[in-house]
Specification:
The structure is a single chain. By secondary structure, the protein is α/β, with parallel strands linked by helices. It has a single domain (2-156), classed as Rossmann fold. The protein has six helices and five strands; from the N terminus they run βαβαβααβαβα. The chain has helices at 7-19, 32-40, 68-77, 79-82, 95-103, 116-132; strands at residues 2-4, 28-30, 57-59, 86-90, 108-111. It starts with a strand and ends in a 28-residue tail after the last helix.
Length: 160
């Protein structure tokens, strides 16, 4: 899922992902309020066959109304969703923005490049990295699968 309030950035980011070979569904979402509705399965996003639960999120920060910090906060407030790799892709290099994004659970923070070629290169690095990571298993709708923690180090943590 790509979250941005700039329609051009949504198009460029999706095109860059396609250019580097991403074939999975990509949902370009206009703004933080729409992103939260998507994650909650509200309105048209209630059809999880069409709008599968996101397994990877990129979000801008500076958006009118519900900003990227609110998106991060929403994800973090629900442990079921907090494990979704969430990359901030922002025009801001402000140190306070970077710090707050990580405090709210961002997996990484990147400043948007100025050229399409640089964007492709940046997204290729991100994509290649995340393709090597182990992430929690999900069902066909993107919801995490239950795991058995009995007798394991993580058993002291409640199952989500």
């Amino acid at each position: 899922m790509i979250v941005d309030d700039d329609p051009n950035d949504l198009v460029f980011i999706e095109k860059a992902f396609r250019d580097i070979g991403v074939t999975d569904p990509i949902h370009a979402i206009n703004g933080g309020r729409e992103a939260i509705a998507y994650m909650m399965g509200e309105g048209k996003y209630g059809d999880r066959a069409r709008y599968a639960y996101p397994t990877f999120v990129t979000t801008d920060l500076k958006m009118p109304g519900t900003d990227g910090f609110a998106v991060l906060e929403h994800l973090r407030s629900n442990p079921q969703w907090a494990v979704i790799p969430t990359v901030v892709l922002s025009g801001s290099a402000d140190l306070d923005d970077i710090k707050k994004a990580y405090m709210l659970g961002a997996s990484s923070y990147h400043v948007k490049p100025h050229s399409m070629e640089d964007l492709r290169q940046q997204l290729k690095v991100l994509h290649d990295y995340w393709m090597t990571c182990e992430v929690p298993q999900v069902d066909e709708t993107g919801r995490q699968l239950h795991t058995n923690s009995a007798g394991k180090l993580g058993e002291r943590f409640p199952q989500l």
